[in-house]
């Protein structure tokens, strides 16, 4: 299933369904958010075609792409190297699957990078990362692919950050984050990289940091109101949004349990604080949120 929401109006509804409901991910087109169900990681491409790579069977990792012109889901060649907890980026009309863990018995951490050429419709292997990583964040900006945080082969959280330049075929390490973390939210907003919440070696965190691409420096930012993992950060129409994730909440019996949330927050630039927008998104269990702009007039109505 896919659902869309127009954040300024706080309205949500069903969109064109994916043929395989056990998938998760999203994309954005024309001020609407689009979601796909477990277990999927995805990132939008600049021409509005959303792409997802499934995290499932150990010997088969298919992908789907959504053609917004024909309102259809199209198949992609399966990923040659099945993996989970990877990151997805895009540059120079290609999709990059970065790091992750093998979907095999050993579940080894990976430094390999797979590249999907959207012109030839073929997968190939790109230059490997300088280190193994999983549970990290990947963001794309100006035909560069940034890899942030995650966990290394020793299962310890990393504060590392590096960038891949596909024109030069090289990786470059950048300034590290102030807080080592994994399973956090990240996005490009106002020409800078924002990271929020996540998992540290001692537990959940609510801290937020912002990276200046021009200065190669990290700075602290207003902390999110609650410690969470798997938070989604979205930059849309000049506003920074935080959506969903997992938090540790106390039950009526006093027991602390991990709880999935599907609320929406936005950052108020004038008052310098996070504000609640929507308490719960219908149908959003297990979803990942990303900004894409889709022509809703061409989508099949349900």
TrEMBL record:
Signal peptide, first to last residue: none
Transmembrane segments annotated in the record for this chain: none
UniProt key word Repeat: yes
Cited InterPro entries: Kelch-typ_b-propeller, Kelch_1
Pfam families: Kelch_KLHDC2_KLHL20_DRC7 (PF24681)
Keywords in alphabetical order: Kelch repeat, Repeat
Record keyword Transcription present: no
PANTHER family to which the protein is assigned, alphabetical: KELCH-LIKE PROTEIN 32, LD33804P
Protein known as: Kelch like family member 40
């Amino acid at each position: 299933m896919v659902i869309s929401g127009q954040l300024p109006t706080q309205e949500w509804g069903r969109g064109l369904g994916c043929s395989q409901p056990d998938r998760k991910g999203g994309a954005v087109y024309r001020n609407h958010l689009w979601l796909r169900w477990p277990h999927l990681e995805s990132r939008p491409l600049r021409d509005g075609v959303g792409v997802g790579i499934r995290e499932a069977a150990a010997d088969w990792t298919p992908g789907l792409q959504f053609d917004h012109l024909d309102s259809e889901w199209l198949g992609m060649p399966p990923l040659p190297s099945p993996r989970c907890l990877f990151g997805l980026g895009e540059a120079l009309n290609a999709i990059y699957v970065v790091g992750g863990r093998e979907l095999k018995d050993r579940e080894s951490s990976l430094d390999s990078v797979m590249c999907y050429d959207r012109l030839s419709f073929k997968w190939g292997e790109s230059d490997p990362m300088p280190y193994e990583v999983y549970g990290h964040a990947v963001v794309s900006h100006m035909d560069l692919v940034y890899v942030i945080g995650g966990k290394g082969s020793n299962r310890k959280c990393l504060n590392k950050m590096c960038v891949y330049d596909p024109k030069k075929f090289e990786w470059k390490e950048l300034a590290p984050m102030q807080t080592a973390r994994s399973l956090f939210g990240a996005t490009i907003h106002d020409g800078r990289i924002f990271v929020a919440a996540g998992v540290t070696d001692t537990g959940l965190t609510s801290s937020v940091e912002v990276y200046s691409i021009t200065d190669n420096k990290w700075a602290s930012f207003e902390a999110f109101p609650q410690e969470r993992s798997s938070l989604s950060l979205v930059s849309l129409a000049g506003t920074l949004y935080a959506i969903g994730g997992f938090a540790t909440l106390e039950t009526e019996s006093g027991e602390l349990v991990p709880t999935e949330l599907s609320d929406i927050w936005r950052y108020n630039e004038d008052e310098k604080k996070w504000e609640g927008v929507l308490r719960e998104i219908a149908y959003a269990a297990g979803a990942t949120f990303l900004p894409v702009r889709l022509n809703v007039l061409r989508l099949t109505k349900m």
